[in-house]
Amino acid sequence: MYYFVSDIHLGGGAAEDARTVEQRFCRWLDTIADDAEMLFLVGDIFDFWFEYNRVVPKGFVRVLGRLAALHDKGVRIVYLTGNHDMWQCDYLQRECGVELYKKPQEFSVANLRLFVAHGDNMNINGQPLLKLLNWVFRSRVLRFLFAWLIHPDLALKFGCWWSGCSRKSHKDSNYEAHLQPLCDYAESYAAEHKIDLFIFGHMHATAAFDTPSYKVRFMGDWHSCPNYVQIDGEGNVEQKNFE
Description:
about 240 residues, alpha/beta, 7 helices, 11 strands, about 35% helix
């Protein structure tokens, strides 16, 4: 079985809510452990993650332990970073055995050709401020300066505050208009590439679109509607809620 999940936002929100989400995600990881062949973590698994050479954010040991255990069982774990956890280096690769990708990827799964991406920084040509912010956050020079000039305690405090503001901004979104840019992207991409299914996160909305031109699945966030996509060995696609 192939599983896809995104926008867990571990560590986000009030401490009690964050622990509830972490426990829920751990229970889900336990339920898929027996039949998972591949696990796709499609971005924003952490509400904020910034990795120094010798420092990583505190917490999440239950999740990291389960990911490492899945890897040790032979489950292939693919991690596509999102806008909240793009600042990864090699810690999760070394400790949990994940394959890390920082750009959208195509995968062949159960005779299906998949396009998998978190969904941020895509089809945003009409949003100059967002393009600028994406450039700033992805700048290697600015990341280097941020890491060397700001103490980790201050850096992580600022990052968690910024991530919280970003996450809360989704609550007031007009989801039809919010999802349309990625649907347009899928339609344009499918016109030039053979893709059976597009899988996105980022939008904090659970939605499915099957058109003659493309098929898309959007996965919501686990603070409001925990859900995931699964594909069996015969290529049957299901979108499910957990608990």
